[in-house]
Amino acid sequence: MTAQIIDGKALAEELRQSFKARVETLTAKGHQPGLVVILVGEDPASQVYVKNKVNGCLAIGMHSEKIVYDKDVDQQVVLDKIAELNADPSIHGILVQLPLPRHFDEEKVLEAISAEKDVDGFHAENVGALSQGSPRFIPCTPYGVMKMFEKGNVDLSGQEAVVIGRSNIVGKPMAMLLINAGATVTVCHSKTRDLKFHTRRADIVVAAVGKPKFVTGDMIKPGAVVIDVGINRLPDGKLCGDVDFDDCLAVAGQITPVPGGVGPMTITMLLANTIEAAERKAGIR
Ligand SMILES: Nc1nc(=O)c2c([nH]1)NC[C@@H]1CN(c3ccc(C(=O)N[C@@H](CCC(=O)O)C(=O)O)cc3)C=[N+]21
Questions:
Q1: What is the reported pLDDT for 85?
Q2: Ligand 1 centre and the CA of 29: distance in Å?
Q3: Cis peptide before 99 (omega within 30 of 0)
Q4: Which residues of the chain have pLDDT under 70?
Q5: Contact indicator for 189, 208 with CB cutoff of 8 Å
Q6: What is the ipTM of this complex?
Q7: Is 53 a catalytic residue?
Q8: Domain range list for the chain
Q9: What are residue 240's phi and psi, to 5 degrees?
Q10: Is it true that 30-115 and 140-263 share their CATH fold?
Q11: I need a labelling partner for 17 at 20 to 30 A (CA). Which of 78, 116, 188, 267 fits?
């Protein structure tokens, strides 16, 4: 048996095409969706992602700009900029690229973004809304994964799901979304005693650990759906996920590749959240 591959790149393209009409409608009403991405420092990987985000917006007729600060910038300068963008009616989404340099108080910066413009879904108000089951902005990566389940016709209700990783950005919101969809959810992490015991009984495994090829075929139940959220750069420059793709391909029922899996979907859902923000502001949602 060989697993069916859920093609994130193709799904991302399909969704982005479908967004164009919404962007056009909004623009005609004087609400062209606008996203600002703030980048502090010059991490090369972050620069690639930020460029992909900005270009993704522009390609479907949205407005987007990036603001880049030196890595030593004073936090107050960034907070002042966020306050200015919060008040700017032409901007619907504000994203501060993470991680921030160590002298930053990440939580303080994220809370400074107006909840209505928090297209990452990291603000406490949006985290709370998601956990109460009435989400406003869903964090882009887990949101993209839910769309991939939809595309793969994965019915989550009653399924055993294991999330590996407990970050605020992926693991926790992913677990919330799976719970809300009716799955029985186990969240594993670095302190979990017998990881394989958990993953082997799972119908769905979502790997978000940040360790290259960490999930191997022997950890997977035959026929399971395996979602790879990891993006690791190997010494030879190639990208690889948290899942040993070749090893799991023969065991899994469905699997996502890296690159071309969850990554492009993350950016797509960022566009979706920004369009949603503009639609709310325009009163058409
Ligand atoms: N506030 C904030 N929000 C984020 O959403 C956020 C962040 N900070 N910090 C960094 C991570 C990482 N991230 C990725 C998005 C797309 C790809 C992506 O499109 N990857 C391509 C490959 C890109 C390449 O070639 O490097 C793929 O998987 O096919 C990867 C990583 C968003 N993040």
A1: 98
A2: 31
A3: yes
A4: none
A5: no
A6: 0.96
A7: yes
A8: 30-115, 140-263
A9: -145, 160
A10: yes
A11: 116
pLDDT at 45: 84
Ligand 1 atom nearest 8 alpha carbon? 29
Ligand 1 centre distance from Cα of residue 263 (Å): 5
Q: Which of 170, 78, 49 is nearest to 121 (CA)?
A: 170
> Which is catalytic among the residues 7, 81, 97, 244?
97
Does ligand 1 lie within 6 Å of residue 259's CB atom?
A: yes
CATH number for domain 30-115, candidates 3.40.190.80, 3.40.640.10, 3.40.50.10860, 3.40.1570.10: 3.40.50.10860
C-beta of 176 in contact with ligand 1 (< 6 A)? no
Q: For the structural domain made of 140-263, what CATH number should be given?
A: 3.40.50.720
How many angstroms does the Cα of residue 49 sit away from the middle of ligand 1?
5
Summarize pLDDT for 222-252 with one digit per residue, the tens: 999 999 999 999 999 899 999 999 999 999 9
Does the CB atom of residue 10 touch ligand 1 within 6 A? no
Residue nearest to atom 20 of ligand 1 (CA): 263
3-state secondary structure of 114: coil
- β-sheet bridge partners, residue 66: 37
